[in-house]
Every structure is written in structure tokens, then in C-alpha cells.
Design a protein that fits this description.
single chain; alpha/beta; Amidase signature (AS) enzymes; 11-stranded mixed beta sheet; 37% helix; 13% strand
């Protein structure tokens, strides 16, 4: 297996070979580090690469496996962490110069769980400042470049994680999703990204943005790899007040069941009303494929659903302002113009408006629960537009915003309002070769059905092995 094939291999492919000794964790890490060294100047996916510690972890993993102490499918697998996630002894910047000296004194829960499973933490990935933005443009650290076209964005805010996974710099990564920042980057880079149910994965040791909308989740090149990471990451954590004690299933259990008998809903409202023709054609073709493969597909009336993203924004702004109020008082001059403008606007939101938004959220969730009562999953586009260029998303001098990414979060934010699980995966390509994302969303705590549908689509569509042209 060549280095390129090794770095693009899935957990399903790597795990048995690592366990048998056919592939060494040291070999995998070195191949990843070599690829990072070659491609990182063009991608800007990482804020920090842990070369020495990753190789040390790899040698330890190799020794444990040789002694018969194999820990499971994540043992020896390279994982990158969005730089909101604490790793003891390293800086967690949140993509901001405000936190340039913020050294973590302990591991985040998700970091500890990955290490306990034998995963190798290879570095910290780039993000929009404080995860506040949809485009993936950060004036402090620069944008991450899309491996499919270096002039285009990776979306925000988990831009670096998406670029790193799509370009084969690591096997998997963690992102965070408050309005779509796992699923949007996954969509435009052609990978799989799962926002689990709210509370399914602990956020202890992860920088906050919006306490009631934040999610942490896996980003990988296949749906099955998301499931393997979920098996390590999910579960109750008393350190996170929002953590759920719902039973944790084996997320890989239904990956090979296919579509037969799966009840798929397609919204009749909002999601298909005003979208790019290439996106529309690819998602509709994907739905047709599901039906041919045995899914029961029906249209669902959801006239209320357009309010979902508006509610998401109404929650996110005031909660982010509460998180960062001290930063606004003491370091406003250090913030990027876009983030400062959003926080200053949000901090003066009347309390009654926030309360009204929370009430609207409760009604919205009730509507969604009713609409999905006889469905397993909903299928929609992930984003309504083609991938903008970095230039289109870079604010002009004197302006906090650029128009290029204004519509990116229209669809994904709906499922941050509800907190239900939502997956983006590749369903095709635009005429100029950019990936198109399909979103599969399920009922609360039913990630198994979402992952089943995603894996079945991957198997039927045959797109998972496509690689970006960067090399």
C-alpha cells in the first residue's frame, strides 16, 4: 500500500491490518506527517501539528498491539481536533489571538476518550474565530483552502478539519456544529460529517459558543468511519450539564442493512424552493436512488420549517454574547471585525426576544416530532448554493461581512434548533467538479438510522472513493 493509499484508507480498512501487524501505527503517522508537510502550505488546514507526540503515541500503540493489548478499531488511527478542543499542555486558541496563551490544563472529555481508545492525536485544525462564521475565512490565521479547488472555501467553522480529512492528512477529525459547521464543510469537501443528537457527545473541555445549540461530532471520509468514532465518543459525562444519559447503541450495528423498509421523508417546503440547479439535480437523483434501492419515500408537508434557521440565529447570538461578554469588555480591539460586530449586536438583544425565541423553539420541535412520527429520516440538500470562492467570502476593507456565504447555513441550522442527529455526505458533483452534499436527519437519539441510510447511499452511489485532485 502506497503512502497515498495508506492516508486515504478508511478505519474499516486500516483497523484489521493494524491489529494483524500488517500496517504499523508508526507507518500511518509518518505517512500522514509527510503528507501534511507537503500539502499544508497550500491548504492551511492546521494551526498546530503534534509531530513528536504523535510519533510517540504511534510507537506506544505499536508496542501495545504487538503485546496483544489491542483496544479496538480506533487503535493507531490518526485524528485531528478542531482548535476548540482541549489537549493537556497545548494551546486552545479558538482561532483567536485573544486566546493565544490559553494552555489547557487537562484533556477535554472527547480527547480523553479518543486517547483511551488508542487514537493518535495528530494536531489542531483551523477554524473561524470563536467558531462564529459560516465561510471559513479567518483574518487572523487565513482561510483553509478546499482540496477540490484551492480558490474555494471549506466553509466554517470546522474548515480545517474538513480540509485535513478530505486531503488525506488524517483519517478522522472532530468538528463542532452550532449552525452547520460540521455538515457544511463536509458538504463542500465531499466527506461525511455527523452532528449527533444534542447531549450525545460531551462538550466538557470544548470552548463554548452557544450552550443550547453546540454539538461536537466526527468528520471522516466514510459514513462507517463516523460510526466507529461515535462508538468511542458517545455517552454520559457528568462534567457536561447538557450530557444525556440515554442508552448508547453500537453505531455500526445497521451499517449493512441497506434501504429496504427504511421510511424516508422529503420535505415539500423550503429545502427545495430556491437552490442551485446542480444541487437540486444531485439531491433529487440521490433520493430516486434510495427509492430504487428499497426505501419507502414520501413527501412531507412542513410549511413551518423555514423558521428553523431564524430560531437558531435568535438563540446563537445572545448565548454567544453571554459567553464572550468579558472578551468584548477587555479585548474587543483584538477581535476580527465580523466577530466583533456580531457580538456587539447580540449583546443588546432584549431578554424578552430571547425568551420568545426559546418558546418558538419548543413549538418548532413539537412540529418536527409530529412530522417525523412515522419516518426514520428526512433527506434534504446540505447547502443551497455551490461552493463560493475565498475571494467572494473575504470582506472588503472597512466591512465586517462579505456576501459570498450568506446562504450557507439556511438548511443546516434547522437541525441545531431541534438538536436531532443530522449527517452530510457526498451525493455528486457540480459541472465544475465541486462536491455536493446531501443531508440525512433523524429522530432524536436515532443516529443508527441516520448512519444506516448514509452507509446504504454510499454503497449504492459509489462516490466514497473519489479523491480531490490535490497531491
Amino acid at each position: 500500500m502506497s503512502d497515498n493509499d495508506l492516508t486515504y484508507a478508511s478505519i474499516d480498512e486500516l483497523a484489521p491490518r493494524i491489529r494483524s501487524g500488517d500496517v504499523s501505527p508508526v507507518e500511518l503517522v509518518q505517512a500522514s506527517l509527510d503528507r501534511i508537510e507537503r500539502l499544508e502550505p497550500r491548504l492551511n488546514a492546521f494551526l498546530e501539528v503534534f509531530s513528536e507526540s504523535a510519533l510517540a503515541q504511534a510507537r506506544e500503540a505499536e508496542h501495545e498491539i504487538q503485546e496483544g493489548r489491542y483496544r479496538g478499531p480506533m487503535h493507531g488511527i490518526t485524528v485531528a481536533l478542531k482548535d476548540l478542543v482541549d489537549v493537556e499542555g497545548t494551546v486552545t486558541t479558538g482561532g483567536s489571538i485573544v486566546l493565544k496563551d490559553n494552555v489547557a490544563t487537562s484533556d477535554a472529555t472527547v480527547t480523553r476518550l479518543l486517547k483511551s481508545a488508542g487514537a493518535i492525536i495528530i494536531g489542531k485544525t483551523a477554524l473561524v474565530e470563536f467558531a462564529m462564521g459560516a465561510t471559513g475565512v479567518n483574518p487572523h490565521n487565513g482561510p483553509s483552502h478546499n482540496p477540490w479547488n484551492l480558490d474555494r472555501i471549506c466553509c466554517g467553522s470546522s474548515m480545517g478539519s474538513a480540509a485535513a480529512v478530505a486531503a488525506g492528512l488524517c483519517v478522522g477529525a472532530l468538528g463542532s456544529d452550532t449552525g452547520g459547521s460540521i455538515r457544511m464543510p463536509a458538504a463542500v469537501t465531499g466527506i461525511a460529517g455527523l452532528k449527533p443528537t444534542y447531549g450525545r457527545i460531551s462538550r466538557a473541555g470544548v470552548l463554548d459558543l452557544s450552550w443550547s445549540c453546540d454539538h461536537v461530532g466526527p468528520m471522516t471520509r466514510s459514513v462507517a468511519d463516523c460510526a466507529h468514532m461515535m462508538n468511542v465518543l458517545a455517552g454520559y459525562d457528568p462534567s457536561d450539564p447538557a450530557s444525556s444519559d440515554q442508552p448508547v447503541p453500537d453505531f455500526t450495528s445497521d451499517l449493512t442493512r441497506g434501504f429496504k423498509g427504511l421510511r424516508v421523508g422529503v420535505p415539500a417546503d423550503f429545502f427545495f424552493d430556491d437552490i442551485d440547479p446542480d444541487v437540486l439535480d444531485a439531491v433529487r437523483a440521490g433520493i430516486d436512488l434510495m427509492e430504487r434501492e428499497g426505501a419507502s419515500v414520501r413527501e412531507v408537508s412542513m410549511p413551518w420549517v423555514a423558521a428553523g434557521r431564524t430560531i437558531n440565529i435568535g438563540l446563537l447570538g445572545p448565548e454567544a454574547a453571554a459567553v464572550h461578554r468579558e472578551v468584548l469588555k477587555t479585548h474587543a480591539h483584538d477581535l476580527s471585525p465580523a466577530v466583533r460586530a456580531r457580538l456587539e449586536s447580540a449583546i443588546i438583544t432584549p431578554a424578552v426576544d430571547y425568551i420568545d425565541t426559546q418558546r418558538a423553539r419548543r413549538r418548532f420541535i413539537e412540529h418536527m416530532d409530529e412530522a417525523m412520527s412515522e419516518l426514520d429520516v428526512l433527506v434534504t440538500p446540505s447547502v443551497p448554493i455551490q461552493t463560493p470562492t475565498i475571494a467572494e467570502c473575504t470582506p472588503p476593507p472597512g466591512s465586517p461581512d462579505a456576501p459570498g456565504g450568506a446562504r450557507l447555513t439556511e438548511f443546516t441550522g434547522v437541525f441545531n434548533t431541534t438538536g436531532q442527529p443530522s449527517l452530510s455526505l457526498n451525493c455528486g458533483f457540480t459541472r465544475d467538479g465541486m462536491p455536493i452534499g446531501m443531508m440525512i436527519s433523524g429522530r432524536a437519539f436515532d443516529e443508527v438510522s441516520v448512519l444506516r441510510a448514509g452507509a446504504a447511499f454510499e454503497a449504492a452511489a459509489g462516490l466514497a472513493d473519489r479523491r480531490p485532485p490535490i497531491n
